[in-house]
Design goal:
4 helices; four-stranded antiparallel beta sheet; 171 residues; alpha+beta; Alpha-Beta Plaits; 46% helix
Length: 171
């Protein structure tokens, strides 16, 4: 089944929000929005995309905890200094070292992931973007199955779209 991309333009924020609500009711989640200004309360209408940043932080934190324990236990076994009659490997004091290395590794990995994922390099414009979307119009680009394209186009027009275009895919 092939997918089509529909681009719609709206003159008013009210029509733009009405179209987003209609798309949400129709359970269409694959969309991009363009607006010349921010609109309060629109975040609830947009599909939520999780950030991969949390996985980088979690993985680095777990690795940091393991490395911290390995360093503390390894040095205790290597030098086997008995202090106060305690065994050389005592996990309770090693938890402090493991915690500190967890925080250090998680923080460094988060910073590197932010720099890597922030898209600071030049990006090409999205296929559905028009220059008017940065000036005085609002836009929505929807990716939808070919059999639902007419239904979604009618839904966007009934919400107040000035124009609904089918985008050609770059493939």
């Amino acid at each position: 089944m092939s997918a089509l991309r529909l681009r719609s333009a709206f003159a008013t924020p009210e029509a733009f929000v009405a179209a987003l609500k209609a798309l949400r009711r129709a359970e269409i989640r694959d969309l991009e929005v363009y607006a010349p200004t921010s609109i309060a309360g629109i975040e609830e209408l947009l599909p939520r995309r999780g950030s991969p940043l949390r996985f980088a932080t979690l993985a680095a934190g777990l690795a940091g905890c393991a490395v911290g324990l390995w360093l503390a236990i390894g040095s205790a076994v290597m030098y086997s200094q008995i202090v106060g009659g305690k065994p050389p490997v005592s996990l309770v004091p090693f938890c402090v070292i493991a915690f500190e290395v967890t925080i250090l590794a998680g923080g460094v990995a988060t910073l590197l992931a932010i720099l890597g994922l922030s898209r600071l390099r030049p990006q090409p414009l999205a296929a559905g973007y028009r220059p008017e979307f940065g000036v005085d119009q609002f836009g929505i680009t929807v990716c939808v199955a070919a059999d639902r394209a007419q239904e979604v186009a009618d839904l966007l027009r009934s919400a107040g779209a000035e124009s609904v275009d089918e985008l050609t895919s770059p493939d």
